[in-house]
Amino acid sequence: MIRRKFLTMTAAITAGSAAAAVPVPLQADKKQLVHHVFFWLKNPDSIEDRNKLVEGVKTLSKIESIRKIHVGVLASTEKRDVVDTSWQVSELMFFDDTVGQKTYQDHPIHQNFIKNYGHLWARVIVYDVAEV
After folding, report:
1. Pair type for strands 89-95 and 33-41
2. Of 39, 83, 105, 107, which residue is 20 to 30 A from 58 by alpha carbon distance?
3. What percent of the chain has pLDDT over 90?
4. Does residue 44 belong to any structural domain of this protein?
């Protein structure tokens, strides 16, 4: 009886492991639009202002056309000539297409973000990238 349960359990684990090893295909031919924004704070040394802006950027995740969002701050990586370390907060968003990005731009949540948090930044730069 114990041996039968052990063999059944072993078979189930093996089957689960085999299923987990099957690769899951990515969405084929799905070209996304990437929207990457960098913020320079008016008070670049203020952790409070940085955290407030991060809080504000995270509110944008409620916009339905955003497929994925990554909110970040400067990483503590090796300093190199090619790395720009002048900014304080970044948002990286993925949209299905330019229509989704336009929906985001015009969305009331985005407009409120600009109105409520715009006083924190001195400069913003945006890179919109079309996947090829």
Report:
1. antiparallel
2. 83
3. 75
4. yes
